[in-house]
Amino acid sequence: MKNIFNKRAVVFLSFTAGAFFFMSSSGIKIQQRAEWVAPAWSDTVKNPFRGKPDAIAAGKKIYGTYCNVCHGDKGKGDGIAAAGLNPKPADHSAAKFQKQSDGAIYWKLTTGRAPMASYEKTLTLAQRWQVIDYIRTLKSPK
Predict the structure, then answer these.
(1) What SS3 state is found at 93?
(2) How many other β-carbons are positioned within 10 Å of the β-carbon of residue 82?
(3) 71 closest CA partner among 28, 132, 142, 141
(4) What is the mean pLDDT of residues 42-58?
(5) What is the DSSP letter of 40?
(6) Of 97, 103, 92, nearest in space to 125 by CA
(7) Using an 8 Å Cβ cutoff, are 136 and 98 in contact?
(8) What pTM was estimated for this model as a whole?
(9) How far from chain centre, in Å, is Cα 23?
C-alpha cells in the first residue's frame, strides 16, 4: 500500500510541477494578450493640437513612416508586418479604439507594449500628438 501512495505522490507532484512550469512560462504571452488599458489619469491629458489641419497633415506623414507597416494605410491593423505579430496591431478605425481619450492613446504611443515599440525617444512630444490627430481621421463611418 505504501508503494502505491508513493507512486501516486510522485505522479501528482510531477503533474503539478509540470503544470506550474507551463503556466509560468506562458504567463508572459497570456499577459500580452490581455486588453491594453491606459492608466485612468491619462484621460485628463489634453491634446494641444486637436483638430488643427497642419497637425493632421504632419501626423499623416509620420504615420506613413512609423505606423502603417503594422497598422496599414487605413489603420485597420493589416499592415505588411501584422501577420507575424502577437498580439495583432490595433485597428485604429474601430469604434473601440476611437472611444479612447487622446491622452490614453498618447500614453500608449509613448510607453509602448511588445510588440509595439515606445515612441518616447523616436518621436517628439508634438509629433506624437500629431499622429493622434491623424489617427482620429481614420474613424470608420457608422
Answers:
(1) coil
(2) 16
(3) 132
(4) 96
(5) G
(6) 103
(7) yes
(8) 0.75
(9) 22
